[in-house]
């Protein structure tokens, strides 16, 4: 299973970004993980899937901004090794 850690910068808090990321994961299917706000104004996303193509599409859509008012100016993506998630969730 491939696991990615993404850190989104830009207009990503206060614009429904986390909900948009969750909806995107649910729409694409076979993506588990979590999304949460950081104190520094960024948003962190853990995403895992058995399908590399789904993760690539997920990252592409996040770069575009998953909600109309969000604007991602930078998306840092790294391979990671976090514990498995059973679903995709929004964390506080």
Quote the beta fraction. 35-45%
Classify the secondary structure makeup into a structural class: alpha+beta
> Portion of residues in helices?
25-40%
The major sheet is characterized as:
5 strands, mixed
Gross morphology is globular
Largest sheet: spatial strand order: 4-1-3-2-5
Radius of gyration: 12 Å
Structural write-up:
This protein has 92 residues and is of the alpha+beta class. The protein is 27% helix and 38% strand. The protein has two helices and five strands. The chain has a five-stranded mixed sheet with strand order 4-1-3-2-5, with helices on one face. Strand 2 and strand 3 form a beta hairpin. It is globular, with a radius of gyration of 12 Å. 29% of the residues are buried.
Secondary structure layout:
Blueprint: E1 2-11, H1 17-28, E2 32-37, E3 43-49, H2 52-64, E4 71-79, E5 88-90
Parallel strand pairs: 2-5
Antiparallel strand pairs: 1-3, 1-4, 2-3
Could you give a quick summary of the protein structure above?
The chain is of the alpha+beta class.
List keywords for this structure.
92 residues; alpha+beta; five-stranded mixed β-sheet; 5 strands; globular
